[in-house]
Amino acid sequence: MSPFAFDAAADTATAIAHGRDAAYIAGGTNLLDLMKEGVARPHQLMDINALPLADIEPSPNGGLLLGALARNAATAYHPLVRDGYPMLAAAILSGASPQIRNMATDGGNLLQRTRCYYFYDTGTPCNKRVPGSGCSAIGNLARQHAILGASAHCIATHPSDMCVALAALEAVVHVDSSAGRRSIPFADFHRLPGDRPELDNTLQPGELITHIELPPAQAFAPHSAYLKIRERASYAFALVSVAAALELDVDGRIAQARIALGGVAHKPWRRPEAEALLHGQHPESPVFAKAAEALIAGAQAQGRSLGSNAFKIPMAQRAVVRALEMALAGQTSLLPGSANKE
Q: Which of 275, 308, 268, 107 is CA-nearest to residue 188?
């Protein structure tokens, strides 16, 4: 591991004063791994665990504010999240392991890096790690890689489960820096790779995530679901995941719908025009299938032979239909002991 300086911030002002020069660390569940592998080499770490950013509380508009330092486990099991945003709770509990969820923070979850094999292997070219060096995944082992939004420079996927639910919920990320505070709609927070795949998000240098705001979602709570398809039952990243939510009117038709895909792109994948196909429709599988087809339109397989991820295209379409069926039935998750809202 490369040498680095270490300091701890006693307050937010101190943290953001050093933000341009230091990497923030809280749970460290991803950053420390990257440092051990030589992928990340910060010259200075700034411990922010002492900052007063761990509260979970109602927002003035009837939604919820998640402090950036709230732990993933505390968030998933919090009554206001569990009852008002069950899809988010299910998504968090689908990720990692209990030990990691006890350490990982909500703000850190947004910032975790891709789990692309080549990104972690410093002996191979990777445009995310060394811009301009090439993408080793293209044409090779790409089972875990993107089918949507990829570029000639990168086909990596974002690994978060929590972020897929946050995308569907249209969360807002609040940040602070020496330049002032700003709010970033979740759809604008993460980036597609384009020709700058080393940039995962739209944070500016020195910006610190302080809160994640959830808009009111009471209308979606009874009919929301998170479905994760992976190669083993635990501690595995998604091949495909789906956050789905429905609001039904008094006649049982779909008043609103939200669908976000994980494991398929450099950011959680959402197309409002696909959701619009459900509005006013009776909730049934053929209608769900049309929305799924629109959501993954333009998907392209990566890799070759046994390394190809072509299987992800039909898998994603079927997973969307299944997740919407689960949401309709009030089955939030396939996890053991998951709540049935019906």
A: 268
Q: Residue type for 142, please?
A: A
Q: What is the pTM of this model?
A: 0.97
Measuring CA to CA, which residue among 95, 82, 87 is closest to residue 244? 87
Which is it for the CA torsion 199, 202, 206, 212, positive or negative?
Answer: negative
What is the full per-residue pLDDT of the chain (342 aa) written as tens digits? 789 999 999 999 999 999 999 999 999 999 999 999 999 999 999 999 999 999 999 999 999 999 999 999 999 999 999 999 999 999 999 999 999 999 999 999 999 999 999 999 999 999 999 999 999 999 999 999 999 999 999 999 999 999 999 999 999 999 999 999 999 999 999 999 999 999 999 999 999 999 999 999 999 999 999 999 999 988 899 999 999 999 999 999 999 999 999 999 999 999 999 999 999 999 999 999 999 999 999 999 999 999 999 999 999 999 999 999 999 999 999 987 554 443
Q: Is 244 helix (H, G, I), strand (E, B) or coil?
A: strand
Q: Nearest-CA neighbor of 86 among 240, 229, 255, 223?
A: 223
